[in-house]
Amino acid sequence: MQNYFELFSLEADFSIDLIALEQIYQTQIAQHHPDKFATGNDKEKALAMQNTSLINTAFDTLKSPLLRATYLLELQGINAFDEKDTQMNVDFLMSQIELRESLEAIDMAKDEIALDGFIENIAGKMKQNIGGIQQGFKLNKFSVIKDLVRELKFYIQLNAQASQLMDEWL
């Protein structure tokens, strides 16, 4: 089976051209869309559904920095979220607790300005983290990347929680 990068004729790299990815995706999805095979036999219809599903999954994986990094690690035989490997940087774990407590306090106070600042802070951490992942892939530092991917997942979840609070308050 082709990997997701090969499916879109892209180099297996963390740094990809998202505009090119989108264009190739649109071409692939148009070529394999099940509606094109509506008059075909059952085998053709099933194959079109399979191809479309694969194309959509590959696209969703490659357009997301977190999923793309996780996938690239998997191609190296590394599971970033191995349940048996729970070791994390103590400083990060402490900052994680502090950020959660901060968000909780903001929620209790219903402080929109503080929440805006919190979301901006987390966005900055995500951007910095993605930059670290990119650098890690350039240097083939897979253990560093694995840690950064775990951290990025936390930041994304925290950002989603903060954004959900903002939506609830509006």
Structure, explained:
The protein has 170 residues and is an all-alpha fold. The protein is built from seven helices and no strands. It is globular and about 60 Å long. The mean pLDDT is 94.
What keywords describe this structure?
single chain; mainly alpha; 170 residues
**Number of E-state strands:** 0
Overall geometric form: globular
Summing up helix and strand content along with how strands pair, one would put the structural category as mainly alpha
* Helical run tally: 7
Helix content: over 70%
Low-confidence stretches: none
| Largest sheet properties | none
The average pLDDT value, as a whole number, equals 94
Distance separating the two termini: 47 Å
Following the backbone from N to C, one meets helices and strands in this order, namely: HHHHHHH
Q: How large, in whole angstroms, is the Cα Rg? A: 20 Å
Q: Per DSSP, what share of the residues sits in E-state strands of 2 or more residues? A: under 5%
Summarize it:
This protein has 170 residues and is mainly α.
Helix and strand arrangement:
Elements: H1 4-7, H2 18-32, H3 42-63, H4 65-75, H5 90-109, H6 112-139, H7 142-169
